[in-house]
DNA sequence: ACGGTTAGTCGAAACGCTTCGACAACCGCG
DNA sequence: CGCGGTTGTCGAAGCGTTTCGACTAACCGT
């Protein structure tokens, strides 16, 4: 546990000089710098994070605030985390993942000056955490968006573009009767961003193709997926494709299809939205999916945050990233419908290649 | 940003008195305490974590070191985390989840005195992180076990007990030909604890019932599961039950069974080991599973760690927790075999209730 | 040769807390 | 009544950095 003092003595310079070598806050001659670095090396010196934090009023810690419910982190969320961690580490910052459920806990973290800034995951449309942190004067970047984003920095998935691509993929395959299985009705009325935005995007995309948009909400569980499938078949018996925005429900949907003797993708094509490769390949057949740019999202969020913190650059970073279409085994040409609406392949457009 | 000084002045006491009120390190009269608390309240005082850490040489931060691979955190691992976070928060500590992949990064965290202690997840049999942290003098508790656990504190799943219960459940249902699908061969030869321990436990449990243990390794993917099923059927065509220790492979196995026209649980029963409720219910039918005591594991680990850190109590906490059997739809009486070995139900024992 | 920069270094004062030694006031006990 | 022992409080000395002002020595253009 060598201190700066020890280094200074060994290098025969003053403590402040050692500090300047470390921080680069003032110019230091090459000769001195070398002496100091050598001393550090021989003493195996590591700066004390607490002392540094106290003196500089900067903890060099940024928090990634994730509500951890019992459901666990999907591979998607994990990708946020790894991306964020890599970006922080590269900048010499520590990333602490705080599973704050408790708002007070969060407030404590913030006002104890332990966090230089924070990235918020799973942002709700009305998110009290945003206010709490702003009040505490903690720089903030969101992954996701609140309802009113004025003055806020965020990175989010470009749901509009993503849904458009997914629909285009199905339409290209000849599907006309496409059902969208969303999150729960409760989530939608609560204004949960991804649910609302994809709904709107779906309606827009389908309308753009001259098709009728059918949306079914589903609870986040296999059972919810089964129920949704039943509802979907009731509402659109002639459906040939399902677009699913619900990683849990999708397994129920697949199970339900099998039970009904409907094969994927022969009878029904399935596309999963905002899904990780890992999950997509769990299913049989592997799911055609829109893969979320998870780690990029995390990285970009932290980079933007650090720019806030250090005062470098824009205080207002707002960016959307699309998911990439990855075609696997769960989508194929529309078949069931051929008998019903043979010869109506009249829309060969709309299959723009994935942006980036 | 009121400081202790401000509080002291407002309460007309000395700074040290305020500190004692906060830490309880020395007795303070009720009258004084009240004055101080009142002052804190009116000033909305929050102690500065850095200053406190510097002066006391204790950061009040413990790390939960989790290797975050691209696979993401299962619900099981997430339960560790939430359990640990709750325990830490209850003790007034912060839990920082560090996705350290990098050993150097870990070493840095440790020697910068930023961590009072650490809980290691996903411990390998030979885990260099253990040595690195011990060297840095950071108190340590493992979730999982290294090969040599002398002098180490750990909490782990009681694989022996868990496998015994799972096997007993199947045997009770009349199954005689049970195949165990483990992690990959590579994981086993690498000595990955859960893989090795469950293998041994399985052999012991089957032998105890006078049955032949058949084990098949499987890659951690749906495809790996399919391959394993093929191998299993080749090696034991008359199998009536599969015990699976591989959350990813199990979906492949289920798919493979369906493809072969084998129904679960009519033809083949399936038990998933060390699985979370969430995942178990994703499958159709929902999986009978040994549910891991995830959040308890996390909680106990942190509690033990904090005892190390504060010097209270045993420096050497070693504890095993069993998984609980949760019967769902994927297991049923042995049927296929009835024709082959009718009337050999000779072992009605071994179905002890979960030890909890 | 001269004031004015600038590069390089130092000493000392923070930063906001904990903790130690000291001390006064009070306790019960012989 | 005097004694050791608590109890409650205070002041001051750190904890290991950063950062500011000051100082020296070289360097600039003139």
Summarize this structure as a short list of keywords or feature phrases:
homodimer, 356 residues, alpha/beta, 434 Repressor (Amino-terminal Domain), Rossmann fold, 3 domains, six-stranded parallel β-sheet, six-stranded mixed β-sheet, 15 helices, disordered C terminus, DNA-binding
* Spatial gap, N to C terminus of chain A: 49 Å
Provide the spatial order of strands within the biggest beta sheet of chain A: 2-1-3-4-5-11
Looking at how many chains there are and whether they match, the oligomeric state comes to homodimer
- By DSSP, the count of extended strands of chain A is 12
What is the helix tally of chain A?
15
Q: Which term fits the overall shape of chain A?
A: elongated
Predict the CATH topology of the largest domain in chain A: Rossmann fold
Instruction: Give the uncertain stretches of chain A in residue-range form.
Output: 337-356
What amount of the residues of chain A lies in strands? 5-15%
Q: Domain count of chain A, please report it.
A: 3
Compute the gyration radius of chain A: what is it? 26 Å
Q: What CATH architecture of the largest domain in chain A do you see?
A: 3-Layer(aba) Sandwich
Derived structural class of chain A: alpha/beta
Report helical residue fraction of chain A: 40-55%
Q: Report mean pLDDT of chain A, rounded to a whole number.
A: 86
Give the class-level CATH name of the largest domain in chain A: Alpha Beta
State the major sheet of chain A. Answer: 6 strands, parallel
**Order of secondary-structure elements of chain A:** HHHHEHEHEHEEHEHHEHEHEHEHEEH
Looking at this structure, what is the CATH superfamily of the largest domain in chain A?
Response regulator
Most extensive protein-chain contact, per-chain counts: A-B, 57 and 57 residues
